[in-house]
Design brief:
alpha/beta; Rossmann fold
């Protein structure tokens, strides 16, 4: 696919733009939305809160989540099932079930708050500015339409491209993601799992979005195909100037493809920062336990760590720290006061009483009362250390963290 130069009036190509951001902006095919602020971050989420209404209660699925995504950056969102990863991503463009609603916060794309946009106004941003690659390609693709037609549909419907031109561009997109042009005439059931996932990526790329969200796009694929899809994401990110939000259970996927990681627990942000820093020196006990639950090919064979207990019921979440009942470092303070978010000198943001506002980012406020299960804040060279001295190295692989 040929990425055209942006129109002369595109404000993101100003002479004062930083080098990397200017290169990313220069790849943009379409002009920015009319109300965009050229000085604003690409995507800024502040205090996002999303609830689901049930017959007898309200589920606090996402609670006060904030993060930023810059041009050309890849952000990984990790955590146990049910921690709010997918709900956070779907809230960005309000693709929520009928009983879900955003009750607070803002989602600013180019400085434009999408939370208060009408359904009709959101059509300007869904797919065209923020596209989603869903987990189950076979469920997302229409089984009775040819793949080429499905990739061309966003071009016809959203950008008013004539059908012949849309199909030509669809063929280019399929080749861009590694599918021969002739295979565009196939139906989804005639393609392998990896090719179906590539087709979904081609569809997401059709309108040249600024942000692509991958909702566990490699979960159902074997290890070799996973590696190919991740390599494709990485190549497209650098070639087309995409920004990526990758939702996954697999910490190795984040280690391989992402610049920053956001660790979520029970609807809240536990820790956020550069991937290398967090994987080497996890501050939050939950992050350390996740890393300790990951297999290490360089360590002796051992039973993987598990996180005891169960996540809290989000219909009635704990008023203080939501990880307190499962945390080996918990104190009375953790049961009484919600931990504030603190930004460490190395840029890591963590919500834990171990790291008060005055912390140096190296020494936690206290240690475990007995034989520690995790080492918090220690530089362990990419390994989450445990009390036995073994660690959980983060490398290529397809095993999900074990979380009891």
């Amino acid at each position: 696919m040929t990425i055209a130069n942006p129109p002369p009036g595109d404000p993101r190509t100003g002479a004062g733009a930083a080098g990397a951001a200017a290169r990313v902006a220069g790849r943009r095919q379409w002009p920015l939305p009319r109300d965009a602020d050229p000085k604003a971050p690409l995507l800024e989420v502040e205090h996002l809160t999303t609830h689901f209404r049930l017959a007898s209660a309200t589920v606090h699925a996402v609670d006060d989540v904030s993060f930023r995504l810059n041009d050309g950056e890849a952000l990984g969102i990790a955590g146990e099932s049910g921690c709010g990863k997918t709900t956070t991503a779907l809230s960005l463009v309000r693709l929520l079930p009928s009983n879900g609603r955003i009750v607070g916060g803002s989602v600013k794309l180019f400085g434009i708050d999408l939370v208060h946009k009408s359904e009709n106004a959101l059509r300007r941003y869904r797919g065209r500015e923020i596209a989603i690659v869903f987990q189950g390609a076979m469920n997302a693709l229409n089984p009775v339409r040819r793949v080429r037609d499905q990739v061309a549909e966003p071009l016809e419907e959203r950008l008013d491209v004539p059908r012949r031109e849309a199909r030509r561009r669809a063929d280019e997109l399929l080749e861009l993601v590694g599918i021969p042009r002739a295979r565009g005439a196939a139906y989804p059931h005639e393609l392998s799992g990896g090719m179906r996932q590539r087709s979904m990526i081609a569809m997401a790329l059709a309108c040249d979005p600024a942000v692509i969200i991958g909702d566990e796009p490699t979960t159902a694929l074997d290890v070799m195909v996973q590696a190919q899809i991740l390599e494709l994401f990485e190549r497209l990110r650098h070639t087309l100037g995409l920004s990526l939000i990758l939702i996954t259970h697999d910490l190795s996927v984040i280690a391989e493809t992402c610049d920053r990681v956001l660790v979520m627990y029970a609807g809240k942000v536990a820790e956020e920062g550069p991937v290398d820093t967090i994987f080497r020196t996890p501050r939050h006990p939950y992050t350390a336990k996740l890393l300790a639950a990951f297999p290490n090919i360089r360590a002796d064979r051992r039973t993987l760590e598990v996180i005891p207990g169960q996540p809290p019921d989000l219909r009635n979440p704990p008023p203080a720290c939501r990880f307190e009942s499962r945390c080996p470092m918990a104190r009375d303070l953790c049961r009484e006061v919600a931990p504030p978010e603190t930004t460490m000198p190395d840029g890591v943001r963590v919500a834990c009483h171990l790291w008060p506002a005055s912390s140096d980012g190296i020494t936690p406020a206290w240690t475990a009362p007995s034989r520690p299960e995790v080492v918090i804040g220690a530089d362990v060279g990419g390994v989450a250390a445990t009390s036995e001295g073994a660690g959980a190295s983060v490398g290529a692989g397809g095993t999900e963290p074990v979380a009891g």
